Amino acid sequence: MLLHEFRPGRLLAGATALTLAVLYGGDAAGAWVTPWYLVFPVTCGGLALAGLAALVAYRLRRRRSAISASSENTDAPASTSGSQAIR
Predict the structure, then answer these.
(1) Which are the contacts of 77, defined by CB distance < 8 A and separation ≥ 6?
(2) CA-CA distance, 66 to 70, in Å (whole number)?
(3) What is the pLDDT of residues 9-68, one digit of tens each?
(4) Which ranges does the record mark as transmembrane (predicted)?
(5) For residues 36 and 27, what is the distance between their CA atoms, to the nearest angstrom?
(6) Can you tell me the distance from the alpha carbon of 23 to that of 41, in angstroms, rounded to the nearest whole number?
(7) What is residue 83's three-state secondary structure?
(8) Is the CA virtual torsion 73, 76, 81, 86 positive or negative?
(9) Would you state the pLDDT for residue 73?
């Protein structure tokens, strides 16, 4: 059993930040040269992909919960006796 649900949008956002850290860390160490303007397309592209993945995952979760909720409503309705009864 999982401790929490999978969030692909957060995974992609974190991978984007990690990619930028590795690119500019390698540049700072002198391993390669990374242009300063590369941060903008990588960040915007990564965050756009993360947003799209989060939207798809959200819609799938909502659809899955709606399907399971509709199959659980096959029992008899609740009793009308008690304080909730309509007069």
Answers:
(1) none
(2) 6
(3) 999 999 999 999 999 999 999 999 999 999 999 999 999 999 999 999 999 988 877 777
(4) 38-58
(5) 10
(6) 13
(7) coil
(8) positive
(9) 55
**In this structure, what token pair is assigned to residue 47?**
């965050």
Give the C-alpha distances (Å, rounded to integers) separating 85 from 56, 77, 79, 81.
41, 13, 8, 6
Around Cβ 47, how many Cβ atoms within 10 Å? 15
- Residue type at position 23: L
Q: What is the 3-state secondary structure (H, E, C) of 24-67?
A: HHHHHHCCCCCCHHHHHHHHHHHHHHHHHHHHHHHHHHHHHHHH
The amino acid sitting at 3 is L
Report the distance separating Cα 14 and Cα 10, nearest Å.
6
Distances (CA, A) of 43 to 15, 25, 46, 75: 10, 16, 5, 50
